[in-house]
Amino acid sequence: MPLIHHNGLRYFQFDTLQTRHAVFTRHGGVSPEPWGSLNVGGTVGDDLERVKENRLLSFYALGRAPESAFEVWQVHSADVVCARAPRPHGESLRQADIILTDTHEVTLFMRFADCVPILLHDPRKGVVGLAHAGWRGTLHDVASATVNAMHKQYDSNPADIVAGIGPSIGPDHYQIGADVILQVMQKYGDESELLLKSHNGKIHFDLWKANHLLLERAGVGKIESAEICTACHTDDWFSHRAEKGRTGRFGALISLQ
Fold it and tell me: Cα separation of 100 and 108, whole Å?
């Protein structure tokens, strides 16, 4: 679907997710290049006051109070945090790459620049989730870990869950080395042939298809994939790989309606 415009910000939304959510582009913020302009990453060299302002703009765009935020320190794991209230101001970030909540007062928030944002909603139990899956997270099976945690913590039936695979680096740009190729083959077996593609003599990994497959294996009832490559479209998205590490982070947030 076309990107949504609001007060100078542009963001992507899934048609199938009946929640308040967005995956924000890099537009509409206050940061200069190379973080231009809606950078929400606080560890990439940008001024922290500008990062805070960009974060506020993101929350205001969706009508969510910044004080409702719950975020984590993303470490490429499959660890889960269940948020029962917004993160208290000044409290240290917990290390995790999956956040869940069934509380309307909480807005889940994460940062990306090529890794896969996975947004989930169980409309029957009233639960939302947000996950971060790069190649490590994908091989750690972040997708299934999220679904399993929704079942364990909130009694979600996987068949009721709706999942969205957000803008992230596409298979044409995601070259991997021999060590990762071996791990993909060990993880997926015969199905690895669907995920590993030769491109200009190099092997590339399809993170979109891999996470779609993991969500299917976990029993998720409906899956929508944006299939927007961050490395192809650096005019709209931050891409760590395409911009050789000198870039910002775009935000994703989700809450119950």
Answer: 8
b/e burial code for range 36-72 (CB count within 10 A of at least 16 → b): bbbbbbeebebeeebbebbbebbbebbebeeebbbbb
pLDDT at 111: 98
CATH number at residue 242: 3.60.140.10
| Cα radius of gyration rounded to whole Å, the chain | 17
Counting residues of the chain whose pLDDT is more than 90, the rounded percentage is 96
Which pLDDT tens digit goes with each residue over 18-45? 999 999 999 999 999 999 999 999 999 9
Number of domains in the chain: 1
- Which structure tokens are listed for 82? 């269940």
d(CA 52, CA 63) in angstroms, rounded, equals: 17
H or E stretch including 46? none
List the domain range (segments joined by +) for residue 44: 4-255
